[in-house]
Design a protein that fits this description.
By secondary structure, the protein is an alpha+beta fold. It has helices at residues 16-26, 31-36, 46-62, 97-101, 107-124, 184-192, 198-204, 207-216, 260-263; strands spanning 2-3, 40-44, 128-131, 135-139, 146-147, 164-169, 179-181, 218-219, 226-231, 236-238, 247-256, 282-286. The protein is 30% helix and 18% strand. The structure holds fe (ii) ion. Fe (ii) ion (FE2) binds at residues 152, 154, 236.
């Protein structure tokens, strides 16, 4: 794997005054630590994932992107044209036409998603807001060996501290096509070196830092539906898909309800500058 730095224009830049506030929020214990004494949990959403896999194939068939329903999701690259698989971003391997097809989701999709949320609530047993529109991503096999992807936490892209991240593989994932994750202790030590200033981190990011990050990241190996739930301060990074199978994943975030006041102080770094509030980034229902 070769290192290459590109422009990471999605990283937030706080004013000097707000950076202090952010740092104090950042250092507060996450709910997973408080309730479960862990930074990473797993929840089995296998049944719901199977339903979603079927629905995705149905949708693509209806849209005439594929011409048979008898396919496995991890082989989808063999059934679609190459303009659907072309990488459209050098800092996000999942940005392609097929991912964009699901920027608009239908009722069935949201019904399955809500059944996932209900199951997560049963396991977590605390009240939370949940991301209104989860992100479905396709990561296609590639021969590319140049790593331009920034090891990060989502709090570096404007998300409010205290969120919990969920990442659900809809296809089974291996060390050559998954996402890699670290753990809280190592991530905290790593980002402390940059004083939790992610703008500074992304600017001085270089080959040495990349190697240091790779040293504390491990691929998440899992079967379809084995959802990883992690403290939002756990560093993670997508992997270049050097396997022969497409990786399909769903990612979303939840916010414990008692953090709504803090969350109001934050905005997404995307063009929408999303508000991290009920009815905006999060669904209007509390669960
Ligand atoms: Fe992320």
């Amino acid at each position: 794997m070769k290192f290459k730095k590109v422009k990471y224009d999605f990283v937030q830049k706080y004013s000097r005054t707000f950076q202090h506030v952010f740092k104090s929020h950042y250092n507060k214990d996450n709910i997973l630590i408080k309730k479960f004494n862990t930074d990473i949990l797993k929840i089995d959403l296998g049944t719901e994932s199977k339903k979603l896999e079927k629905h995705i194939i149905d949708c693509l068939y209806k849209k005439k992107i594929i011409h048979t329903k008898k396919i496995q999701l991890n082989k989808i690259h063999e059934y679609i044209t190459s303009d659907n698989t072309n990488e459209e971003s050098n800092n996000d391997v999942t940005r392609n036409k097929l991912t964009e097809v699901f920027f608009e989701k239908d009722e069935v999709f949201f019904k399955i998603y809500f059944s996932m949320i209900t199951k997560i609530k049963k396991k977590l047993k605390f009240n939370f807001l949940f991301q209104k529109d989860p992100f479905l991503r396709f990561n296609f096999p590639t021969k590319n060996k140049v790593d331009t992807l920034l090891p990060h936490v989502d709090l570096a892209i404007g998300h409010p501290p205290g969120e919990v991240n969920l990442w659900l593989p809809l296809t089974s994932v291996t060390k050559s096509n998954s996402m890699s994750v670290s753990n809280l202790k190592k991530s905290m030590l790593f980002f402390k070196k940059f004083d939790f200033d992610f703008d500074y981190y992304s600017k001085i990011y270089n080959k040495k830092i990349w190697k240091m990050a790779l040293g504390i990241l491990k691929p998440y190996i899992a079967k379809q539906g084995e959802t990883i739930v992690f403290d939002s301060r756990v560093m993670h990074k997508s992997l270049l898909n050097n396997s022969k199978k497409t990786r399909v994943s769903l990612d979303f975030r939840i916010l414990p309800t008692d953090l709504q006041k803090i969350a109001k102080m934050y905005r997404g770094t995307g063009y929408k500058k999303q508000k991290f509030q009920k009815g905006h980034y999060y669904d209007s229902r509390i669960i």
